[in-house]
């Protein structure tokens, strides 16, 4: 098989890129190792930034999202028994998040490719990406080889595209944080109205809206903790304690928990994001913790930049945007990583604070209150959190 752009992976990055390339007349093939059912059933992110929605809309990819998503412009911080509401919409020219589960966006993007007559090749695993410095890089799949002009690796942090890069000339900047997060997707009797973060002496907890009957929760735990240490009653008790100071009415009633798993809290940014005719996008090039809800948004921002760059190269012969893709995107990734880590710092008490947690918590509360009052702290937080595009 022969195509102009071979894309490994049908996550948000690969699918968004393929939709735009197809609409702009660039021939491309998405190869995905999982089944369509599995890809469309994977529940992960849910908060779309302002700039992500603006771009999807400009490409004609947001009709269902705009019709079905809910909008959020505030979040609550709980600390020392106080709830501080941060109306970031008010400090970012009215910009809002859209709450739209990742699997719905993925479904919409798969539908878009199907309508355009080029659905992803599901249940096909790419085994190797070869000849990346030649004129015709190849995707080697079981029983099939695809010859391409360019290959884009959108196959996530553990994908094979990274493995195709030469050992020298690339560096992964890895960071391991001194805690992990238990992540729980749970049925709830009432929807989370907005995001709630708790800074608590027992550790951080978070509640994120995912729909009318589903919320995602996070609980800070010691690094390396096992998921088996967290039976449902303990999860409920800890969430109630940290998010509502023990008040049962302060938290929705939790029902079935379709997903309980441990997130090893780490980040990794690969530089550069390109080698020869292989380009990386999304989690394949950079993975962040869920702090600030940035991963899917960065993946789509990569796709947006790559789509323009590949169209410029393949239709106009302009190599400039493709040559600067890695540097441009890494600058944005580093800015976003900085924000995500700053938020981690606000939400977690350092280990040495266990001797005097109240003093540390009081200073956190003061910092949180600054985000809720007009001024440079609130302005900066609002624009970075909602992803307005303003630096
Ligand atoms: P992925 O979505 O990982 O897609 C990669 C695809 O490649 C997969 O479908 C995989 O099957 C396929 N693949 C892998 N290897 C091969 C191969 N050899 N051949 C063919 N196909 C292959 N982000 C946010 O923005 N907001 C949030 O609120 C948020 N919350 C999150 C909560 C959790 C619990 C988790 C785990 C993540 C969260 N994220 C969030 C991050 C977000 O889900 C990821 O950043 C996003 O999925 C990255 O998209 P991607 O397209 O780069 O990769």
Automatic annotation (TrEMBL):
Source organism superkingdom: Bacteria
InterPro entries associated with the record: FAD-bd (IPR002938), FAD/NAD-bd_sf (IPR036188), PheA/TfdB_FAD_monoxygenase (IPR050631)
Domain FAD-binding as annotated: residue spans: 2-339
UniProtKB keywords: Monooxygenase, Oxidoreductase
UniProt keyword annotation of Oxidoreductase present: yes
Stretches assigned to coiled coil: none
Pfam families hit by this protein: FAD_binding_3
GO molecular function: FAD binding; monooxygenase activity
NCBIfam families in UniProt: PRK08243.1
PANTHER family documented for this protein: 3-(3-HYDROXY-PHENYL)PROPIONATE/3-HYDROXYCINNAMIC ACID HYDROXYLASE, FAD-DEPENDENT MONOOXYGENASE
Protein name, per record: p-hydroxybenzoate 3-monooxygenase
Organism: Streptomyces zhaozhouensis
């Amino acid at each position: 098989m022969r195509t102009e752009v071979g894309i490994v992976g049908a996550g948000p990055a690969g699918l968004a890129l393929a939709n735009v390339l197809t609409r702009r007349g660039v021939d491309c093939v998405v190869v995905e190792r999982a089944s369509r059912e599995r890809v469309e059933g994977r529940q992960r992110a849910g908060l779309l930034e302002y700039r992500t929605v603006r771009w999807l809309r400009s490409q004609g990819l947001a009709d269902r999202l705009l019709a079905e998503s809910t909008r959020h412009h505030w979040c609550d911080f709980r600390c020392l028994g106080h709830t501080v509401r941060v109306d970031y919409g008010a400090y970012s020219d009215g910009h809002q998040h859209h709450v739209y589960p990742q699997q719905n966006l993925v479904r919409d993007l798969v539908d878009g490719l199907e309508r355009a007559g080029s659905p992803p090749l599901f249940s096909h695993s790419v085994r190797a990406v070869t000849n990346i410095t030649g004129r015709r890089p190849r995707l080697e799949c079981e029983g099939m080889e695809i010859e391409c002009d360019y290959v884009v690796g959108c196959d996530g942090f553990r994908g094979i595209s990274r493995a195709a890069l030469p050992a020298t000339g690339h560096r992964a900047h890895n960071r391991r944080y001194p805690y992990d997060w238990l992540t729980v997707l749970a049925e709830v009797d009432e929807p989370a109205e907005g995001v709630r973060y708790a800074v608590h002496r027992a550790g951080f907890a978070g509640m994120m809206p995912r729909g009318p009957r589903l919320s995602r929760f996070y609980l800070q735990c010691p690094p390396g903790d096992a998921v088996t240490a967290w039976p449902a009653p303990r999860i409920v008790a800890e969430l109630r304690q940290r998010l509502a100071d023990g008040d049962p009415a302060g938290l929705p009633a939790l029902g079935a928990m379709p997903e309980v798993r441990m997130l090893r809290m780490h980040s990794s940014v690969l530089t550069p994001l390109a080698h020869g005719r292989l380009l990386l996008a999304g989690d394949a090039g950079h993975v962040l913790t869920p702090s600030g809800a940035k991963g899917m948004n960065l993946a789509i921002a990569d796709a947006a930049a790559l789509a323009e760059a590949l169209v410029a190269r393949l239709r106009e012969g302009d190599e400039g945007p493709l040559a600067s893709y890695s540097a441009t995107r890494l600058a944005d990734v580093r800015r976003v990583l900085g924000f995500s880590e700053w938020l981690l710092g606000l939400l977690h008490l350092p280990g040495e604070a266990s001797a005097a947690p109240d003093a540390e918590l009081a200073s956190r509360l003061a910092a949180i209150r600054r985000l809720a009052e007009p001024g440079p702290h609130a302005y900066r937080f609002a624009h970075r959190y909602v992803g307005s595009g303003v630096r």
